[in-house]
Specification:
Structural class: alpha/beta
Oligomer: single chain
Shape: globular
Number of strands: 14
Strand order of the largest sheet: 5-3-1-6-7-10-9-8-11-12-14-13
Radius of gyration: 26 Å
Distance between the termini: 46 Å
Strand content: 5-15%
Helix content: 25-40%
């Protein structure tokens, strides 16, 4: 197993991005023996780099032009597990480093870093506020500190957010047991709401986790930059946590590799703390999911948003049949392990999954050429990607999925089928940056569908997507809504989201709002079509055959104009 890390200079000292520093600190903390490969690259504009002592590490410097395709295809840092499998994304690779150590020594002290049921930072940053804070927000703070022209004597907002997080009740996975024990211990406490929950010792509770390691490295550097006495007074809970962390002798031993930065004028500044929401950063933060804050679609609001769209005179008519519907997929020739049955689906879902897969496979079969790289984004356990890999042995198929367990199930099926044209990428889809020819996704939830489309358009690749979870659409650090310039002129984000929520009301044909839900689905997917057309795509939108195989049965096939001409000419 090899860890590929980015560095900017190896002259007198090692100058590296914050992700590399966090990774090397974790390697040192865990006493990992992983093979370290350093890839020199050019520092990006406005990005801040840090000096790190690598004299105690064993490493190899790699030529960026000679690295593996998988390494070139993902944002660094990345771990290459073997010839067919790699892992990208800071949280994912750090978890893998820990798991690799634990595999050799189950009683190793670093096992605790994986957290309750080994679940620490497993959720992707798009779904988890906590993962996003550790993997994106805090890291971005270090990468672009003051690059945005922010006030020099104001502490970064991420430091204020951490302080607020530490003031919130600790997350306990056995909260009910804890509450009951407190109830019996305190006769005055008659309900869980009245009970005093324990305070934070570490960022996730009473035990140190991987989140603490990531946050410690970042906060340690920030505290050396903002090193006035007033800083600690502004962040009493963070200061208390930081003091607890450096009581760990292993942490102290690892400090030698961290940057030593001093702000010479620190004591001349009277630092202030920015105003942020006083809330927890956990993905299950009750402040984010209280019923009062949920979005409800009032009928009059939906009708108003639909009227706004209608003023654009944009057609939402769908094609009569899916692209490539004329092709035949003979399931009798497909081996068991490439079928939904081989994927261990419940019998009640088999028929519909067969129908979904054949609707997705036919356009791929029609458009793919020998040597094409096909990416199955959000692949899950590989139902679609494995079938395509079997049907198109002359193509390379990449299964891209952020859930390790799902990919492990896919690997077992590929092994049984003895397929040699499948690669496995465990990462969020936005960490993938490789070239490919066809991108496909079956029921990529909410924003994920638009991230897939964004990836395909960026690479001028064909896309074949069946969207899902329209009501989960939301602005994020990757994209905003509406997607197309046409809708942006007439509709703001709030009115657009009303339509996306209404588009999820399609689960009961007898419900009076189902017809309206399908109309809203067509509007959202038309917005996607219009955005792709801005970049020179020909887009086909139709429904699965039969449409009863899933309530979310739209299929979008997008082909760059040059490839459309070639396809029409060849046919």
């Amino acid at each position: 197993m090899e860890a590929y890390l980015e560095v900017y200079s190896l002259a007198e000292s090692c100058l590296a991005p914050i992700e590399t520093i966090v990774t090397l600190f974790t390697v040192k903390y865990c006493n990992s023996k992983i093979n370290i490969k350093l890839i020199p690259s050019k520092q990006k504009p406005l990005e801040r780099a840090y000096t790190i002592d690598i004299s105690t590490f064993v490493y190899e410097v790699m030529d960026a032009n000679k690295i593996l395709f998988s390494v070139r295809s993902c944002e660094l840092p990345i771990i290459v597990v073997n010839k067919t499998s790699c892992i990208a994304g800071l949280c994912a690779i750090l978890r893998q480093i820990i798991k690799d150590v634990v595999a050799d020594n189950p009683n190793h002290y670093c096992r605790k870093l994986l957290g309750f049921k080994d679940s620490c930072l497993t959720a992707c940053s798009e779904a988890s506020v906590w993962t996003k804070f550790c993997e994106v927000d805090l890291i971005q703070t270090l990468k672009f500190l003051h690059a945005d022209g922010s006030i020099k004597n104001e502490l970064p907002s991420s430091m204020a957010r951490l302080e607020c997080h530490m003031s919130q009740p600790v997350r306990l996975h056995n909260l009910y047991k804890y509450a009951m024990s407190k109830k019996f211990a305190d006769e005055n406490a008659i309900s869980r709401d009245e009970m005093r929950l324990p305070e934070h010792t570490y960022t996730e509770g009473s035990h140190v986790t991987l989140a603490d390691i990531i946050i410690f490295v970042c906060i340690h550097i920030l505290l050396t930059i903002f090193s006035s006495d007033a800083t600690m007074k502004l962040l009493p809970l963070t200061a208390k946590w930081y003091k607890k962390m450096i009581e760990d002798q292993i942490i102290v031993d690892c400090l030698e590799c961290l940057p030593v930065l001093r702000n010479q004028d620190a004591n001349d500044f009277n630092y202030t703390l920015p105003q942020v929401l006083n809330q927890s950063l956990y993905k299950s933060d009750p402040n984010r999911y209280r019923p009062k804050s949920r979005v409800y679609t009032k009928q009059e609001d939906v009708e108003h948003s639909m009227e706004l769209f209608n003023t654009l005179n944009v057609q939402t008519t769908l094609d009569l049949e899916p692209f490539g519907a004329e092709l035949n997929l003979d399931w009798s020739t497909v081996p068991y392990d490439a079928t939904p049955e081989g994927g261990s689906l419940p019998a009640t879902r088999l028929k519909k999954k067969h129908e979904q897969l054949q609707n997705m496979c036919k356009p791929v079969m029609k458009l793919a050429k020998a040597g094409d790289v096909i990416v199955d984004f959000c692949s899950g356990s590989g139902h679609l990607g494995i079938l395509v890999a079997y049907l198109l042995p002359y193509c390379i198929v990449i299964l891209l999925e952020n859930k390790e367990e799902s990919l492990n199930r896919a690997k077992e099926r590929v092994k049984k089928l003895k397929l040699t044209n499948v690669k496995f990428y465990q990462c969020n889809l936005d960490y993938f940056k490789g070239d490919f020819d066809i991108g496909m996704s079956l029921h990529a939830c909410g924003v994920a569908t638009d991230l897939v489309l964004q990836q395909c358009v960026k690479r001028r690749a064909i896309f074949i997507c069946c969207p899902c979870c329209y009501g989960s659409l939301h602005d994020c650090h990757h994209l905003t809504y509406p997607r197309s310039n046409v809708l942006k002129k007439q509709m703001d984000q709030e009115k657009y989201m009303i339509l996306s929520h209404a588009a999820d009301q399609t689960h009961d044909e007898k419900n009076v709002k189902t017809k309206q839900g399908y109309e809203c689905m067509a509007i959202i997917d038309t917005d996607r079509r219009l955005q792709a057309e801005q970049f020179g795509y020909k887009v086909y939108i139709s429904k699965f055959i039969p449409k009863t195989c899933t309530p979310k049965h739209h299929i979008l096939v997008g082909i760059p104009r040059k490839k459309v001409t070639n396809t029409e000419h060849s046919s």
